[in-house]
Amino acid sequence: MREKATTLYLGPQHPGITGNMMVRLKVEGDTIVKATTEVGYLHRAFEKLAEKRNWLQTFTLMCRFCVPEPDPMEESYSRAVEAIEGRIVPERAKYIRVMMLELARIGSLLLWHAGQAGSTGLYTVGQWTVGDRNYILDLFEELTGARIYHMYIWPGGVRRDFPEGFADKVLKTMDYLEGRLKDYDNLMFENSIFQKRTQGVGYVSPKQIIERGVVGPVLRGAGIRSDIRIDDPYEVYDKLDFKIPTETSSDIWGRALVRREELRQSIRIIRQVIEKMPEGAIYNKVPNPQKWTIPPGDALARTESSRGEIGFYVVSDGSNKPRRVHLRGAAYVHAMTLLEDVLVGQNISDVSTIMNSLGTCAPEIER
User: Fold this and answer.
1) At what angle do helices 252-276 and 166-184 cross, to 10 degrees?
2) What are the DSSP calls for 289-311, one per residue?
3) Which residue segments constitute the domains of the chain, with CATH numbers given?
4) Which pTM was predicted?
5) Backbone angles phi, psi at 308, to 5 degrees
């Protein structure tokens, strides 16, 4: 005899939800039989708003597509505009951009550690990693004047050069964070509670991966070595030495191990950037923003964020405003079609753990 079905609402304001969104669950007992993702509680219509602003004003909207990691949005938009216009970016600016992108990746991964551990009851990990993330935000604040929305990577290069002593501060922060990785292992990855709550849970089948267009750690956690930084290099990634970690279990545990190693690899990349960065200009100045027009054309620029591929397709009709700006982010696939399928048959206690492991940023869906 089947139990009576009950509808539960998780979110939109809930510590287990990765952003302002809701998952409507139909459950029988404590087993999920249907899941529906619902959005509309946060930022909306950024793509349409871009059509009413000039090229530089539009740039200030891009970082709001994902609050925890805005820099890949700035990067993709800037490179798409530069590709259409043919604007050359100075070599030093390319190195600085890579440093910013990897700092943003580290900050996002530390926040992910907090959410993934917290969803299994390991709240101390969250206190540690969110606290350590503040050291990354300190660097952002000193370089850009802002902790969250940096608006620093813009068409033509970056907004300002390093202040005095900044490179040394970056290296010291990397030394500190690398020393903390063992602490994260001891409290999280070597913890039997975390292992039991993640191993074999939230499995994503190869069929789902192919059909949904899965990217990032979810893809690499299934054993597929794919990363835009290697597959389609941009800026100076082809001049740097780093590894793309993979696992084969395709569950929460596998995705967690991928992200754990990505922290180490980002630290490795940043050290190389500081060592190899040349002197020189950091900005190929654009014209007066009110009069700046881009020749007719279109371009797609792809960037690897901590959640996976971020693609911006930008179209110009020759005016001082974009004709079209379209985002292809990981969250739409991972938190809509994929999450709704993966949750079926799971226990309600695992919803937040699975959601966090897939990588979700609600504004990417509401764009």
Assistant:
1) 160
2) TTT----SEEEEEEEEETTEEEE
3) 44-366 (1.10.645.10)
4) 0.95
5) 130, -160
